[in-house]
Write a structure and sequence with these properties.
- The chain starts with 6 loop residues before the first strand and ends with a strand.
- The chain has one domain.
- Strands 4-3-2-1-5-6 form a six-stranded antiparallel beta sheet, covered by helices on one side.
- With 111 residues, the chain is α+β, with helices and mostly antiparallel strands.
Length: 111
């Protein structure tokens, strides 16, 4: 029996951005953290259960990125952020172009 994958790391373009998904058993979902220069910048909770298939996390990243970075404009996106997340969130929104697995496979690309 395969064990559950409880976290997944992604690299981004530009290379100073990265994403980590980590299962949070208390909330029954996954904590998604965006990093700028390896420092946590923006963190949200998203309903994704742990799975034995890495594709489950990849699909969640696609849905999340589409929802956050393509379905809404910059003004609407930053309205959802707290004051201390404003500049970091704006930077992520304006600079994130592509999300890749650590092996280099493209997961999502901003259109």
């Amino acid at each position: 029996m395969k064990s559950l994958i409880k976290e997944a790391d992604y690299v981004c373009e530009p290379s100073n951005l990265s994403i980590k998904l980590r299962y949070a058993p208390k909330g029954g979902g996954t904590k998604i953290t965006f990093y700028i220069d390896n420092v946590a910048a923006l963190e949200r909770f998203y309903r994704v259960n742990p799975s034995t298939d890495r594709g489950t996390y990849d699909a969640a990243v696609v849905r999340l990125c589409h929802r956050w970075f393509e379905s809404v404009g910059l003004d609407e996106f930053i309205e959802r952020l707290s004051a201390d997340e404003y500049l970091k969130g704006k930077y992520i929104y304006t600079h994130l172009r592509k999300v890749l697995t650590k092996s280099g496979r493209k997961v999502w690309e901003k259109s």
